[in-house]
Amino acid sequence: MNITIFEGFSEILLEVFFALLPLLVFFLVFQFFFLKLEKEKLFNIGKGMILSFFGLAFFLQGVHVGFFPAGGVMGEKLGGLTFTWVLIPIGFVLGFVATFAEPAVRILNEQVEKVSGGYISEKIMLYTLSIGVGVSIALSMLRILVGFSLWYYLIPGYLIAVVLLFLSSSTFTAIAFDSGGVATGPMTVTFILAIAVGVASVTEGRDPLMDGFGMIALVALAPILSVLVLGVLYERKGREESES
């Protein structure tokens, strides 16, 4: 086993410990004064905290020694291709697959289906968010290749979102803006961002700081638009069903 795999792991363990400590203290205060849960539930919560601690620690260590370096190397290799236009469809596929693997997206979709009583299915939400993020990554690759400003995406995008707010229901509005935060999870930030920075670093005339970053802003915007569009479609479907 390569010893460098665990390089800096002790520092990560310490960081995760201090990150989870306030949550644990907060829970214990509530348990002592208000909750007073049974021992069995406390035992299960304790196991969950331990698993979360080591899960976060191993994930962050994996990001440090695996995801970031792999993403950077992939970005540099992709950016050096002769046919650079292929980065656009590759970006879509990477964004689509990364959203499929995003744990926070799964949790959000499960909650949406549960609270809506199955009216908004988990599968539809998953494909909606995945397509939205895939399009945003593809547009990010196009921006790196062409070199135009991020404002050309953000200003029209949020203007369209404001218009869609009036066309969609309040339920989808709330879900949409939560989806924007959920989609910018660890898979996208740690892997896809590293690829974008790698592509920008080897593309002539591009600055990794100016052109490589900014992708997360698009990833946060794309699910908002895609879910609001889904809400408009649901609104139209509901009107058609009521008229018939």
TrEMBL record:
Transmembrane segments: 12-37, 49-70, 82-103, 124-144, 150-168, 180-200, 212-234
Keyword Transmembrane helix: yes
Pfam families registered for this protein in UniProt: DUF1538
Domain of life: Bacteria
InterPro entries, A to Z: UmpAB
UniProt entry keywords in alphabetical sequence: Membrane, Transmembrane, Transmembrane helix
The protein, known as: DUF1538 domain-containing protein
Native organism: Alkalihalophilus sp. As8PL
